[in-house]
Request: fold
Amino acid sequence: MEYTISQRGQRYAFDALVIGSGIAGLCYALELVEQRPLASIAILSKESLYDSNTFYAQGGIAAATADDVSSHIADTLSAGDGLCNEDAVATLLQEGQESVAYLMKQGVHFDHDETDALALGQEGGHSNRRIYHVGDQTGTAIVQALVARIKECPRITVFEKHTAVNLITQIAPHQPACFPEVIGAYVLDELAGIIHTVMARVVVLATGGAGKVYRYTTNPSVATGDGVAMAYRAGARVGGLEFYQFHPTLFYHPKINNFLISEALRGEGAYLRRPKTGERFMQRYAPEAMELATRDVVARAIFSEIEQSNDDYVYLDIRHKDKAFLQRRFPKIYETLLNAGFDLSQDLIPVVPAAHYMGGGVISDVEGRTDLGRLFAVGETAFTGLHGANRLASNSLLEGSVMGRHAARASCHAIDTPLHLHQAIEDWDSTSVLDLRRASQINVHWRGLRGEMSSYAGIIRTDAGLRDQLKLVLARRDMIEEYYWKYAITRDLIELRNIILIAELIVRSALNRRESRGGHYREDYTEKSSHAMESVLKVNDVSRTE
Ligand code: FAD
Ligand code: SIN
Reply:
């Protein structure tokens, strides 16, 4: 049954529109308040302020002391496998200590050891202990502290349950037509079912990752790559999307989705074992680093073990550690597993690799500037070259906090420069069709796409599989585009449209990269090419090649 409805919402104007409420968006907003106390700021969040990748971060934030920075840089470059931007690495990592101090000033209480010094954790690929943490709930502690500060700022308006649909652009007289200026966004108010026109002098994409493109993910449901999709459609270059990082150890359980078992457990000595025989296997894949090899190596090893054995998972084993230590160091993990029937100090824990971090994103400098005027990208959505082909654990909370604050300073000039509209900006088209049967049918695409992406464009890829996947993605894209232009806009529809575009960009990037490097592994090109090629996609260039 079809109904015609109006989705026209209200019109708003702010100095800054921040799309996303993870560490990067919140740090941007707080720093802009410092720089421009009178600026009006809107923060959008798809769910509540407490629902983001940041909120679920467990291990902690990597921050080297002055005499350890060069080693942290070397570890990051080594994980990045030849594709890091060395300037971005140096700039962002040098601010580790300052970031930790900043977060403490906002009210984050990092753990201390028995000597009352700040306690430092260890994770894969790090030569030294340099991870500051709050138990195994570092992200929750950071979000709670930053949100408390946000609530003290009268010039910040928070819109929860609001989802940006698309960016509003115009061609400014001084800008080439292919790189427009971004002057706002259309935003779905999910509860009212209407779409607002939000104008702004600066728009900040802080929308996090896109884990929901794969079947298994550590990410919460908001992670659908919206920022990258919106920026790409608006004409910004995106890069590095073939480097989706898989975390080796998602808890494998029929009823508990997306629960990560932190790498910090392997940092404290946990082993990986085959289910039937109980034998350790990492010596066959990384004889020196073993369970603390970089994530791409460990995730691939687990994937191969699962494939060869026909098991659905492998085991993580930390039974050799003291129960009291485990309860103190990993309280959230201990409790969650116990509620699911597993005692970390006595039981083997079933785990699978899962999509975890979007290594690519909107191409930007370390201050968040993108190709498009007045548009900034920060945190996981941005692609600065910090992570190269594979992110070093715990570098992304650092990236989010540093970039968010850098971008706030860099955007002041645009905040001070009034918007001149060179064309009339229409409100959202007032009528659309609501068809409940069709709405439930499109949801079938979710499951299909995520399964296909995991099989064809997941941890191990081939040319034939990627080509099949491209055909499947493009067929789904055509169906959803038709639906998008005709029917009422819902959050499901926005997310599905975006996730299909992200899938297309991942597959195209993976097809183009005929080598194995970092998180991208091609069974038909197992060697690393002698030339470290960058991968960049732009909307008009891609459609010209079709
Ligand atoms: P996010 O924190 O993901 O925030 C994105 C925000 O954007 C959300 O508020 C979302 O609602 C909003 N949003 C998205 N689309 C829209 C839209 N269309 N409209 C409106 N709002 C939108 N990194 C580390 O460094 N250390 C760790 O220990 C660590 N552990 C992790 C554990 C887990 C389980 C996960 C999933 C990730 C972990 N990471 C860790 C990675 C790290 O948490 C993220 O990379 C980082 O927090 C991203 O921050 P962000 O601000 O860029 O985005
Ligand atoms: C973890 O705690 O294992 C996640 C750390 C990260 O992704 O940086």
User: Anything to note?
Assistant: The longest strand covers residues 8-19. Residues 13-243+359-416 form a domain with the FAD/NAD(P)-binding domain fold (CATH 3.50.50.60).
